[in-house]
Every structure is written in C-alpha cells, then in structure tokens.
Amino acid sequence: MKSYAGFGKRLLARFLDVTIFSILIGGLFYVFTGDYSIAWNKGLIWDLFYTLYLIVIPVLWAGYIMGKRICDIKLKRTDGGNVKLSNTFLRELVGFHLIGIVTLGTSLVVSIFMVILREDRRAIHDMIGGTYVSEN
C-alpha cells in the first residue's frame, strides 16, 4: 500500500532544502567572488544549479534530496519504482518551472490545493513527471 506525504512534510522538506542549498551556494559565491550578495544575474545561476540539483540528485540518491531525506519522504514513480532522469526532468523543469512561469504562479497555488485535497497528494508537477512523494 502506498503512503503519500502530506503538504506539511513536503513544505518543510522544500524549506530545508532551499535553506541548506542556499547556504552551500552562498558559500561558493563567497569563495569565488568574495561577496555574499546575490545580484539578479547570480540569482539566475543559483536557480540553474538548484534546478539541476532537483533533477539529478533524486536519480542518484534513490528519490531523496537533502530536505526529503531529513523529513523521511522520497520521490517515487507512480509504479513504485525509483525515479529516472526523464521523471525528474519532466517534474521539475517542465511541470514546476516552465508551467509555473507560463501560468504566472497560478499552477503553484493549484498544486498546493491538489496536495491538500487529493487522496494521492499529487500536484501538477507530480502528474507531469509520473511521480508521487512517499512517506516512509
């Protein structure tokens, strides 16, 4: 039987992930530039690295990223298997970022309600990527 992660755990995992990743990337910016400030062009670089992280690491780490590992939840394919690069690419780049930009963030609000109200707790990006977030 599948155990779906709820909105609270998913939100906490994303918050932890962004916080930890920001500290790491901020440290790298400091090492290379001598400044902690992130200008808009460096913000684009941060977003690129973070998106690549969200696409690659779950494939290498069996569905986990740092925040999900801390919250004991993981990304899985709808058939229960480990995610593949195609799943994470569709989920993050297409389902989350591109659709989020095209809809001016409306898809994010809809996704929040989907995770709260749907029995399978899947958001728009989960459906596009053929994934769900499992609670261990």
Overview of this protein structure:
With 136 residues, the chain is mainly alpha-helical. Helices cover 66% and strands 7% of the residues. The protein has six helices and two strands. It has helices spanning 7-33, 40-60, 66-71, 85-102, 106-117, 124-129; strands spanning 73-77, 131-135. The termini are close together. The model has no long low-confidence stretch (mean pLDDT 92).
Short structural summary:
With 136 residues, this protein is mostly helical. It is built from 6 helices and 2 strands; from the N terminus they run H-H-H-E-H-H-H-E. The chain has a two-stranded antiparallel sheet.
Pick out its properties:
136 residues, two-stranded antiparallel sheet, 6 helices, 66% helix, globular
Unreliable residue stretches: none
What is the helical fraction, as a range of percent?
Answer: 55-70%
Could you tell me the mean pLDDT? 92
Strand content: 5-15%
What is the overall number of helices?
6
Distance between the termini: 11 Å
Count the strands? 2
- Placed side by side, the strands forming the largest sheet appear as 1-2
- Total domains, how many? 1
Element-level helix/strand string: HHHEHHHE
Structural class: mainly alpha
User: Taking Cα atoms only, what radius of gyration do you get, to the nearest Å?
Assistant: 15 Å
The largest sheet, given as strand count, sense and whether it forms a barrel, is: 2 strands, antiparallel
Q: Globular, elongated, flat, extended or rod-shaped: what is the shape?
A: globular
Membrane topology: Multi-pass membrane protein
Subcellular location: Cell membrane
Protein name: RDD family membrane protein YckC
Organism: Virgibacillus litoralis
